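REVIEWER CHECKLIST
Item 1: Sequence provided? yes
Item 2: Single chain? yes
Item 3: Sequence as submitted:
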Amino acid sequence: MRKQHGFTLIEMALVLVVIGLLLGGVLKGQTMIENARTKNLIKDSNAYLAAVHTYRDQYHQLPGDDKGASIRGNAWKNTADGDGNGRIDGDTEALQFWNHLRAAGLVTGEIKDKGNEPETAFNGKAEVKSAVAGFSTSSICYSNTLGRAASAMDAEQDDGNPATGSIRALETTSSGASATPATSYSEDDRYVVCRQI
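Item 4: Structure as written out by the authors:
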């Protein structure tokens, strides 16, 4: 009979230590990626709000609602005018919001007829919405935002409460559609986070 050899306790312990180190490294890497995405979301939110204020200072109208945008020159030739009522109303003005900011050189990207909303760090969209999340005015909403990131954004830029302040959150359904206003953040859930313009 041949003698069979198995792993010794020391060898088994070493294998478990190596597996533990690998898992720890993967988890740490995922945390670092998520933190970077959160920082990008916050940075983009600040940049978009600054772009809106700059546009308003330069043209004395809101992007998307600007009634004289299409006659400003070559960079503006593929934009459409808003109605100039001081609000960003409906899908057409929400679409033109990004086109006006792009034509003014305040955000990057190509001017398009459809699908021109910037993507977020969490594979969602930055969309302009009117009278949502309890706001009476327009806001920029970031879809598919992880709860930890939504909470961090709200805490850093507002009051940390998803139901009050200039940043509010909507809970999402399993299909990703926005539903009811959130009353608290759950770390692993997804939200539509809206920042008032």
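Item 5: Key structural point noted by reviewer: Helices lie at 9-59, 90-103, 147-157.
Item 6: Recommendation: ____
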